[in-house]
Specification:
Elements (H helix, E strand, L loop, with lengths): L2 H12 L4 E4 L4 E4 L5 H11 L8 E4 L14 H9 L5 E6 L14 E6 L3 H10 L3 E5 L11 H7 L7 E2 L12 E4 L4 E5 L2 E6 L1
Parallel strand pairs: 1-7, 3-5, 4-8
Antiparallel strand pairs: 1-2, 2-6, 3-6, 4-5, 8-9, 9-10
């Protein structure tokens, strides 16, 4: 991947813009998680209630240090065993988690990506980014830059990072770090204990 594209995407993130980028299965819609206005714009584009929460995508676990302060060592080891990879973990919020990133149950969702381009984006940005599928709520997710343009044509994006998705047809699994329950497996919402 041309580093110019990554630099342009990071410049857009730092400027408060929304970007789209490839992940393991779909194109993600993201922003700087510490920019409240940008997060509010992501929620507006998605027509997603703030209380549903958002996923933060990182390139390494150290980017989640402020979010993991309340997670015990055994749970953290279990999380680290699935990363990098398409497993998202819902963890209890610490005091340092901004209100606009919190789900209504006072949690935040985290994933260390295995997608090389998404990981490079987070690495160059120097932090995690918001990651939700680049589509309107209830519509099919975008799996290419062209589909992002078509599905979000009314949305002002700062940049669409070109590249291929990882090829997975299933969204990331979501697990609850507090209960070990699988909340989403293969796109279906479930409440099954491991």
């Amino acid at each position: 991947m041309n580093s110019w594209h990554l630099k342009r995407a990071v410049h857009s993130l730092r400027g408060g813009a929304l970007i789209a980028y490839p992940t393991e299965s779909v194109f993600g819609l993201g922003c700087d998680p510490y920019n409240r206005d940008a997060v509010d714009r992501v929620l507006a584009v998605k027509r997603r209630p703030a209380g549903r929460g958002l996923i933060l995508l990182g390139s390494e676990i150290s980017q989640f240090a402020p979010f993991l302060a309340g997670v015990d060592r055994a749970t953290r080891d279990m999380m680290e065993a699935t990363w990098p990879g398409p497993v998202t973990w819902v963890v209890p919020c610490t005091a340092s988690v901004p209100a606009w990133l919190r789900a209504s149950d006072d949690t935040v969702a985290l994933r260390v990506t295995a997608h090389p381009l998404a990981a490079s984006l987070c690495q160059l940005f120097g932090d995690a980014v918001v990651s939700t599928s680049a589509n309107l709520r209830g519509r099919p997710p975008a799996r290419s830059a062209l589909q992002v343009r078509l599905r979000l044509k009314a949305t002002r994006l700062g940049y669409i990072l070109p590249g291929a998705t990882g090829g997975s047809r299933r969204p990331s699994e979501i697990r609850d770090a507090r209960t070990r329950a699988v909340l989403r497996a293969g796109g279906a919402m479930v409440a099954v204990k491991e």
